[in-house]
Design goal:
The structure is a single chain. The chain is mainly α and 104 residues long. The chain has one domain. The chain is 69% helix and 0% strand. Helix 2 runs antiparallel to helix 4. The protein is elongated, with a radius of gyration of 18 Å. The two termini are 13 Å apart.
Length: 104
C-alpha cells in the first residue's frame, strides 16, 4: 500500500511528537506507517492499563473510595495518554521505525 503525501505528513507530525526534530528527516513509507499504527495501539492499551493503577496516597479509610472514584473517572474520560507509555514505546520502537524508514 502506497502512502499518500497527506498520510506521510500526518505520520511525520506524529513521529516528530514522539522523537523530536530528528524524525523530520526520516523517509516515510508504508512500513513506517504500519509501525506507527502498532505503536499508537500499544500506547492506547498502556493508557488503559494505567487508568487502573491506584495513585499514591495516604492509606486511610477513604483511600479505597477515592481510588475507585479516580479509576472510574479516568476510564470514563476516554482519549488520553501517559508520558510513561509514550516514552517507553518511543524508545522500544525507535530502531524498528528507523530501519523501516531506510528499507525502501
Amino acid at each position: 500500500m502506497e502512502v499518500t503525501e497527506s498520510e506521510a505528513r500526518d505520520v511525520r507530525t506524529i513521529l516528530i511528537a514522539f522523537y523530536g526534530r530528528e524524525a523530520e528527516s526520516w523517509p516515510i513509507n508504508s512500513e513506517v506507517a504500519r509501525l506507527l499504527g502498532e505503536m499508537l495501539t500499544k500506547n492506547r492499551r498502556c493508557a488503559e492499563a494505567m487508568d487502573l493503577v491506584p495513585r499514591p496516597g495516604i492509606v486511610d479509610r477513604a483511600y479505597l473510595r477515592r481510588q475507585l472514584a479516580g479509576i472510574a473517572r479516568r476510564i470514563l474520560s476516554g482519549d488520553k495518554s501517559y508520558l510513561i507509555c509514550e516514552r517507553f514505546l518511543a524508545l522500544s520502537m525507535k530502531s524498528q521505525i528507523r530501519w523501516a524508514s531506510q528499507a525502501y
